[in-house]
């Protein structure tokens, strides 16, 4: 009788353990399923946020590239029309001085109103320094045209804190050679002195500039312009009018314009 009772008790305990084990496995299975179900939306959310981020970056880069293209186009228009002003001023002589300067002044104002203003509008609200390579050539050409016109009009530089005077000296060299060809030696000598002054002042400033600046290269070009003007003025003073025909015509496109006496 006792043996039967013990066997029954053991069976009840075994059944209880089996039930508890099954319940435990079931709970752990439910827990793992619930954890996986909670993790899955998080993973999907992460992928979605990354996709949105890359889409945002792509939109930003596309907008920046489109803006750069518009700025490059505007800069080219500024460059082209500024060169036209420079060519217009190069036609100056004693006979047509007022007419040429009046036309050049109107053309320069048109460059500001039509093209520079468009460039400024594109650069508003942006980090303009990131796009400086896109618009720098046009701005430099405009400053060159404006300073060249100002010198021919008043004999002075523009009243600005920073101007690109290095490119101006190349145009002044061509102007000086052209004026010598027309017999205006005194005017060419004034140009020569003016270019010397610019070069002397910039030799004090350029060493303080950043090493990445291209001003040091431009200073070498400026020195060449100074030497060419000096050689032309010196040769006219020494050899007289016989030297003037060697300089070619006053047309800036003449192949002899700017060629020194030694090179001839």
Automatic annotation (TrEMBL):
Subcellular location: Cytoplasm; Nucleus
Record-linked Pfam families: Translin
This protein's UniProt keywords: Cytoplasm, Nucleus
Superkingdom: Eukaryota
MF terms (GO), sorted A to Z: sequence-specific DNA binding
Alphabetical list of InterPro entries matching this protein: Translin_C, Translin_fam, Translin_N, Translin_sf
GO terms for cellular component: cytoplasm; nucleus
Record has Cytoplasm as a keyword: yes
Chief subcellular location: cytoplasm
Family as reported in the entry's similarity comment: Belongs to the translin family.
Protein name: Translin-associated protein X
Organism encoding this protein: Gossypium raimondii (Peruvian cotton)
């Amino acid at each position: 009788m006792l043996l039967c009772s013990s066997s029954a008790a053991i069976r009840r305990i075994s059944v209880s353990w089996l039930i508890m084990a099954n319940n435990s496995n079931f709970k752990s299975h439910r827990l793992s399923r619930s954890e996986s179900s909670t993790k899955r939306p998080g993973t999907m959310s992460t992928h979605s946020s990354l996709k949105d981020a890359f889409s945002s970056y792509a939109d930003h880069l596309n907008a920046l590239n489109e803006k750069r293209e518009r700025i490059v186009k505007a800069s080219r228009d500024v460059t082209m029309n500024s060169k036209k002003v420079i060519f217009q001023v190069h036609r100056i002589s004693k006979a047509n001085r007022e007419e040429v300067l009046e036309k050049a002044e109107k053309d320069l104002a048109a460059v500001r109103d039509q093209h520079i203003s468009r460039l400024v509008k594109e650069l508003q609200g942006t980090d303009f320094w990131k796009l400086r390579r896109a618009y720098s050539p046009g701005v430099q050409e405009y400053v060159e045209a404006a300073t060249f016109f100002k010198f021919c009009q008043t004999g002075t530089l523009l009243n600005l804190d920073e101007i690109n005077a290095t490119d101006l000296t190349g145009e002044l060299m061509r102007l000086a050679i052209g004026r010598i060809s027309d017999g205006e030696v005194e005017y060419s000598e004034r140009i020569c002195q003016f270019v010397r002054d610019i070069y002397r002042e910039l030799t004090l400033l350029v060493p303080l500039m950043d090493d990445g600046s291209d001003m040091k290269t431009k200073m070498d070009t400026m020195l060449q312009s100074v030497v060419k003007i000096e050689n032309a003025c010196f040769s006219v003073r020494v050899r007289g009018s016989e030297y003037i025909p060697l300089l070619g015509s006053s047309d800036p496109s003449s192949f002899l314009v700017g060629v020194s006496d030694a090179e001839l």
